[in-house]
Amino acid sequence: MTATAAQAVLDxxxxxxxxxxxxxxxRTVVGPTVRDGAIVLAELTSADAxxxxxxxxxxxxxxxxVRREDGAAFAHSSGPQSxxxxxxxxxxxxxxxxxxPDGDVRFTPHDPDPPSYAFLGVxxxxxxxxxxxxKVLTGGRYEDTGYGKRRSGAFLIAAECTEPxxxxxCVSTGGGPAAECGYDLALTEVVDAGGHRFLVRVxxxxxxxxxxxxxxxxxxxxxxxxxxTVVDAARDRMGRALPPxxxxxxxxxxxxxxxxxxxxxxxxxxxxxTMVCPTCFCTTTEEVTDLTGDHTERWQRWDSCFxxxxxxxxxxxVRSSGRGRYRQWLTHKLSTWHDQFDTTGCVGCGRCITxxxxxxxxxxxxxxxxxxxxxxxxxxxxxxxxxxxx
Length: 390
Prior knowledge:
The longest helix is centred in the C-terminal third of the chain and has 21 residues, at 362-382. Strand 2 and strand 3 form a beta hairpin. The protein has helices at residues 12-24, 84-87, 124-138, 145-152, 205-212, 221-235, 247-252, 259-266, 272-276, 322-341, 351-354, 362-382, and strands at 7-10, 28-35, 38-43, 54-59, 62-67, 91-99, 105-109, 117-122, 155-159, 185-192, 195-202, 217-218, 283-289, 295-302, 312-313, 316-317. Strands 3-2-8-9-10-11-1-12 form an 8-stranded mixed β-sheet, sandwiched between helices. It has 12 helices and 16 strands.
């Protein structure tokens, strides 16, 4: 890493040059853009397609695109998609089989040649989510080779958060609006009297090499100070927070909580929360055959623990109630994920809150479980043998 490339400033022309350089390398550049009334991820051929001047208003079960006056490109919260859609796609062929003329069956594994991705505008919460999926899908005995191929060549350009949404709670999950690690380049957008610019930090040799090719200027003290200020301010403006308790212990002690009945009465078990979650990884397989019976394919596709058939064994599903399925999802996410992968399964992006059609709020549910546990503990203490009462 060179000293001049360690930190620099790009203007909008520099950002355009960044995308052009990545395209020239043969990479598929993916970043946020405006489409269908939302900020979504899509392939970019120019930085001009970024959502300049657009922001979002969020709440439980609510998402609205709004205009901004400052022309910022990254002053918006996470949209309905995450980078999981590209690294761990919702549907992928595993192999195919064909009946030969002599009656044998020939199996052909699907060995894709994935694009060389460059992800532009990866939020710090999503950087953490990618690191978690790395551990889940490539860190164990049974590697997802498709994920591994797509991930190994991906170039990550982070965009630090300056405008957290009303459903964001990354700080309470151990993260924050600053990009700490896991990126090749990190951008902090600054829009003030000094102009519209991006402070760039280098996180890898590949990032340093790319930055050397771009029109840039040395990072000045004012830009550095403003960048730190806006990111620090974002840390203090999270819209929500998980209660500051041992979540592993809380979830383990709450398996019979009455609150599960309350949330089950509202939950549609639609699985939206698992589809938009950047760390949920569960899949199933399905067979697809042609009408002749001479060709078949096996596909892997996303599945959800909210699906009634997800826990199906001979004789029926293990978790037949909505109560049991919601409890499984939340308990795994915040507690037993640690037992499997030594990390939490939640990065606090808030997507599950925003895109729940019933407006169920994970932070509200955990706070209610904590309050119920405290109430039961207080009642047990007051009614213990030897306790004096009036």
